[in-house]
Amino acid sequence: EAGVAQSPRYKIIEKRQSVAFWCNPISGHATLYWYQQILGQGPKLLIQFQNNGVVDDSQLPKDRFSAERLKGVDSTLKIQPAKLEDSAVYLCASSQGLADTYNEQFFGPGTRLTVL
Amino acid sequence: AQSVTQLGSHVSVSEGALVLLRCNYSSSVPPYLFWYVQYPNQGLQLLLKYTSAATLVKGINGFEAEFKKSETSFHLTKPSAHMRDAAEYFCAVSNTNAGKSTFGDGTTLTVKP
């Protein structure tokens, strides 16, 4: 079974530029998560989808971050415009069940973003 | 609300020595608790999980953790460290009514030869 795929693995941009990350979850997984992991910290949930609907985006900085999962499968996370403090690893995870019950999350390798 | 505190951002042990990584949690409902390992440039891999069954949980790679409700702790142990155990370890808590997890800030384990 293929794992969670993310691309690109690395991205370097200048502040005020835009960037997009892509995630393809494990086939059949209903719930998808985007986490931000700043160096020296644990992952922080940005947004959680169940199929193509948003379950929780309370920690997403909506003035600059957006995410979508239009067909309930793969997802994109966008930052526009980027700030220096957005430098982090962006992790995508997926789980099989619905968002209101516990299901094991499977993580992708992450995208390391550096904002100069 | 839920939170996790990992005591000690860096732990160093000698190969063959006991590994003890500390985790304390706070949760308003009975929690699910997890330990993940992260190797450089890789995603998180689940080591073990507590989901209200046995309080002593055994995971992969010889790790285990004990859920102690009275101490609100879920410390990770391994009797004998290997060089390959060098990595970053994250403790996480999940509300049983929701899938999302809250992570601690991690503990970097160094294993000395």
Describe this structure in words.
The complex is a heterodimer of chains A (116) and B (113). Chain A is an all-beta fold and 116 residues long. Chain A has strands spanning 5-7, 10-13, 19-24, 31-37, 44-50, 53-56, 65-68, 75-79, 88-95, 106-107, 111-115. Chain A contains no helices and eleven strands. In chain A, a hairpin with a 2-residue loop joins strand 5 and strand 6 (53-56). Chain A starts with a strand and ends with a strand. In chain B, a hairpin with a 5-residue loop joins strand 6 (56-58) and strand 7. Chain B is mainly beta and 113 residues long. In chain B, the strands form two sheets. In chain B, strands 2, 4, 5, 9, 10 and 11 form a six-stranded mixed sheet that branches. Chain B has a five-stranded antiparallel sheet with strand order 1-3-8-7-6, with no helix packed on it. Chain B is built from no helices and eleven strands. Chain B is globular. The A-B interface holds A 4, 31, 33, 40-45, 48, 56, 91, 93, 95, 97-105, 107-110, 112 and B 4, 9, 32, 36, 41-46, 49, 51, 90, 92, 94, 96-106.
What is the fold's blueprint, element by element?
The complex is a heterodimer of chains A (116) and B (113).
Chain A (H helix, E strand, L loop, with lengths): L4 E3 L2 E4 L5 E6 L6 E7 L6 E7 L2 E4 L8 E4 L6 E5 L8 E8 L10 E2 L3 E5 L1
Parallel strand pairs in A: 2-11
Antiparallel strand pairs in A: 1-3, 3-8, 4-5, 4-9, 5-6, 7-8, 9-10, 9-11
Chain B lengths: L1 E6 L2 E5 L4 E9 L3 E8 L5 E7 L5 E3 L5 E5 L4 E6 L8 E9 L5 E3 L3 E6 L1
Parallel strand pairs in B: 2-11
Antiparallel strand pairs in B: 1-3, 3-8, 4-5, 4-9, 6-7, 7-8, 9-10, 9-11
